[in-house]
Amino acid sequence: MSDAPTPPEAAGDPVPAPEPTPRSGPLAPEAPAPRPRRIGWQPTLRWFSAEYLIVVLGVLTAVGLNAWWADRDARTREWLVLEDLREDFVFNKAEVQRIRDLSARFLTLYEHLATLSDDAITGMPLDSVYTYTESLFISHTYDPVTGSLEALIASGDLGLLQDRALRERLTSFLQVLRDSDEEKQAAFDQVVQMLERTTRLGGPWNSPGAPFPVEPADLIRLRSDADYMAQARLLRWVAWYYAEVELPEVEVAIDSVLVSLDANLAR
Length: 267
Description:
The protein is an all-alpha fold. The chain contains seven helices and no strands.
């Protein structure tokens, strides 16, 4: 018998090691397809909304600023126009009253002339003689200042005035002026006729101190001429009608405009 150890029994056939998988080549496995990238729509919408809001606000702000500036410029121009108009109409108010006062004064002088004797006239100083002579053939008419109003209408800027009542009163004032022009022209035509008539009686004359001042004898000659005095009477009637019937309507229109102007300037 041998004492050598008995070899262990085989545990079975050995398992072969797996072959390595090639990383490339025809036998390499296909790489998995990449997963699609997801883009969130909410952040994009928020960004777009913010950008849109900024643009809209910018446009609206620019439009608003332009409108505000244009309105501010228009109101500044309106204020200047209102001041110019008021200055003109204050003058027009005073001028109407001045013409009416002169008309009343000349009418009084004309009536008083009939009561004077020739001796009283002869003893008059030359300035008084001229005053009485002037009352026979002069009739003052009203020449309004309408430069600011006419410029406003000609430029098409009447709508610059916000007050509709003021615009209507300005238009009414111009209409009243046109209505009074007929009587104004009648008085002017009569004055021209009277001045022409004085040429055959030695005139026309100038005020004292002028090269050809009127003398007491000239006034006596005028007063003694029946035809001349008849014409003077007609002139005084035309002048009275113009001053006491037509001009009061003009004055009412002026007062109405001034009330509106003052109200607008007090805003």
